[in-house]
Predict the structure.
Amino acid sequence: MDKVRLSASSRSILDERSKQFPDLKLFTPPVRGWAKAIREAFGMTTAQLAKRLNVKQPTVVRLEQSEVKGTIELATLRRMAEALNCTLVYALVPNQPLETTIRDRAQLFARARRAPVEHSMLLEDQPVAAKDPEKRIDEIVRETNPRQFWD
């Protein structure tokens, strides 16, 4: 299978999986971070969580702070989740369907490729074809290696 069809297939599969996510606003982290919010909801101290993680108490404080800053490592956050009897869920959820993004990029690609040709034709006083390449987006997406859309 060539790269173009493989990419299209991957986009289709990932778009279907992305549809299964609920409203992402529900997953906005608490101001103090998930680990601290859950630990406090359990009535657990940092010393108690430290014991479960086999680390020192100040380390738990530092880890909770690094979660809030967004600098915690995923493996560490996973360990904390397990110590809190939770499951870490990690995903990149596209803001729009991947197919929409690739079509948008294909349109930009088509415009960029067409602009120099149109400029040359105008300089030579030749008429520019009325055919709009954006109407050919399906064909461009189908036949062009998507890597070219990101240059």
Q: What stands out?
A: The chain has a mean pLDDT of 86. The chain has seven helices and no strands.
